[in-house]
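Example 413.
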Amino acid sequence: MHPNTLFFAAAATAVASAQDLATALAGQSSLTMLVALLGQVSNTTEFLASHEKVTLFAPNDDAFAGIVQSGGIFSIDQASVDPGLIEQILRYHLYRGVVKAEDITPVPNFIHSYLNYSGFVLDGEVSGSNVTGGQVVSVNLNAEGDALVTAGIKVASKVTVADITFDNGIIHIIDKLLLIPLSISETLITGNFTALAGAATQAGLVPTLEDLSDVTIFCPNNDAFQKIASGTGNITDEQLAEILKYHVVQGTVGYSTLLSNSSLATLDDEEVKITIDDDGAVFVNSARVINADILVANGVIHVIDEVLNPANPYATPSENATATATTSLATFVPFTSGIEPETSVYFELTQTTSFVAAGLVTGTPSATNGSGNSSVTTTSGPVIQTTNAGGRNDLPALAAAVAIGALAFAIDW
Ligand SMILES: *[C@@H]1O[C@H](CO)[C@@H](O)[C@H](O)[C@H]1NC(C)=O
Ligand SMILES: *[C@@H]1O[C@H](CO)[C@@H](O)[C@H](O)[C@H]1NC(C)=O
Ligand SMILES: *[C@@H]1O[C@H](CO)[C@@H](O)[C@H](O)[C@H]1NC(C)=O
Ligand SMILES: *[C@@H]1O[C@H](CO)[C@@H](O)[C@H](O)[C@H]1NC(C)=O
Ligand SMILES: *[C@@H]1O[C@H](CO)[C@@H](O)[C@H](O)[C@H]1NC(C)=O
Ligand SMILES: *[C@@H]1O[C@H](CO)[C@@H](O)[C@H](O)[C@H]1NC(C)=O
Ligand SMILES: *[C@@H]1O[C@H](CO)[C@@H](O)[C@H](O)[C@H]1NC(C)=O
Ligand SMILES: *[C@@H]1O[C@H](CO)[C@@H](O)[C@H](O)[C@H]1NC(C)=O
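Predicted structure in complex with 2-acetamido-2-deoxy-beta-D-glucopyranose:
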């Protein structure tokens, strides 16, 4: 069966005649909130309509209601106080290139939005985009055949109505607001990666990391730090900084679909070796990537199960199994003192992501390059898919709070 069959069956597919944006939105009964919002903030409709060959993800009324249910308030009055903020949100819902339902496959496709501001501050934290070409979301089909749009901290919105054409491109209606990716430190805390958060703080590296553009960060989880806890007692801040810089690649946002067997230069002027084995598992030196594609303001984070050792760059994937079998965990997680963990950790950030062999997934990895109509072009490379077994998909408390801070929305209409 073609992977899109279910999606087509499940999603109501809409009218195909060209119409302007306002007409297209007004014709959809589930978009009353969005239409009202656009009506209040005078220049946003023009902004949305002023770009050619776009894909607009239009949040439906449930998406706005979801913010309210998670304790947020939504105020169109406040929205008009800061139309600049609303514009940022809308920019993150508008994508370069026309992605039709038929272009969406099980393999995630990372597409670039019109959110390309680097100085966006959300809740006191730098957020938004310091990613060349504009901040991204990934679009893919899940095992049930639903089209998902996955944004900051891996919150996935579902496409409920696909392929509404308008003069400038195509609209898909989605059931959650797309959450603009957060700063590195906010994201680490949200995912309970408190050891890396603490280590980066101790090493004085946080401002450096957050001020870079286009980063790929390999983030050892807390268990990984616990494995090396006994060796961390006498480490100096400088040594720690060197080790952490070995986990950062700058100049390439290495979304999972772009990774291949290769070496990548790290911030400490060394190299890490990426290996994708024949089962599709991805390794960095000997560390295994266990959760991929967590989007942050200035790039992407992949979670790994070992702390990388710059003194041992030739470590290979086979050493991972050996280490796992022989390492006894310390009783404490180093670097976490003074780091206040979140009480509610977003599930999608803590679960293990499995990487499946190319043969198990139909279709090849694809990347949009923004030119042309049906802008999905294919590239060759590893095929990586995340499992989503029983995942919690509701907007987490923190994300909701942040979304509210950003939107300053309070429903009073
Ligand atoms: C819309 O108006 C707001 C407030 O004047 C401004 O910050 C924003 O840049 C404008 N957007 C566009 C696309 O002109
Ligand atoms: C952001 O994108 C707009 C097109 O929408 C472009 O004119 C502008 O130069 C871009 N800005 C940056 C900082 O890339
Ligand atoms: C974005 O990255 C550039 C370096 O490429 C840096 O100079 C700038 O400060 C960054 N912007 C933010 C908001 O961090
Ligand atoms: C966060 O990580 C710590 C240490 O690994 C663990 O003890 C704690 O249960 C985690 N918190 C949540 C909410 O998962
Ligand atoms: C830390 O330094 C002390 C004093 O030099 C030494 O006795 C101890 O073994 C060191 N601990 C580690 C984990 O290297
Ligand atoms: C990547 O390297 C691994 C280990 O050397 C090998 O098994 C795999 O076939 C390589 N993949 C490609 C596409 O060359
Ligand atoms: C982008 O698309 C254009 C037109 O189809 C093509 O010429 C170009 O090679 C593509 N670039 C990439 C990076 O795929
Ligand atoms: C855009 O799509 C139309 C209709 O499918 C096609 O005729 C045209 O060649 C396409 N243009 C590009 C640049 O791909």
